[in-house]
Amino acid sequence: MKRRIQIAEDGPVQEPMLPLINIVFLLLIFFMIAGSLQKLGPFEVDPPASHTADAQPEDTIVLWFGKGGEIGIDDLKGGLDRLSSMLPVDYIGRPVEIRADRATEGAKVVALLKRLQELGVDKVQLMTAMEAGQE
């Protein structure tokens, strides 16, 4: 008993698109998971250059310090007078990383460091960018 298979030639043959769509979504998910995202600060800073770089601990508080003296932590912005209200509740004992603009005056950075010391912060790091040609 032989069966005949009839192929309709009424319209164009369509390729199945579902496997292609699945592959595109799997690649999208892979690159979303594999890529590393960095949280952006409340404003742009251009850090000074350095020769070494160390990784920061997980519980580090990132403090953005602009050239005009503005301070940012997470989504909060303000001046030196608002620093105590901008710090998280559990900031005691946690390291603070200062991301200051390279055009910031040294006296303003010193004033910020004194204010952090008054608030009880004892671990402070100044974030710098690696010089060109270093890895």
Describe this structure in words.
- This protein is an alpha/beta fold.
- It is built from three helices and seven strands.
- It has helices at about 20-35, 85, 105-120, and strands at about 50, 60-65, 70-75, 75-80, 95-100, 125, 130.
- The strands form two sheets. The chain has a five-stranded mixed beta sheet with strand order 4-3-2-5-6, with no helix packed on it. A two-stranded parallel sheet has the order 1-7.
- The longest helix has 17 residues, at about 20-35.
- The protein is rod-shaped.
- The model has no long low-confidence stretch (mean pLDDT about 80).
Whole-angstrom Rg? 27 Å
What gap, in angstroms, lies between the N and C termini? 73 Å
**Low-pLDDT segments:** none
Q: Biggest sheet, strands in spatial order?
A: 4-3-2-5-6
Q: Number of DSSP strands?
A: 7
H/E element order = HEEEEHEHEE
Q: Average pLDDT, to the nearest integer?
A: 79
Q: List the total number of helices.
A: 3
Shape: rod-shaped
How is the main sheet built? 5 strands, mixed
Features of the shown structure:
single chain; 7 strands; 17% strand; 5-stranded mixed β-sheet
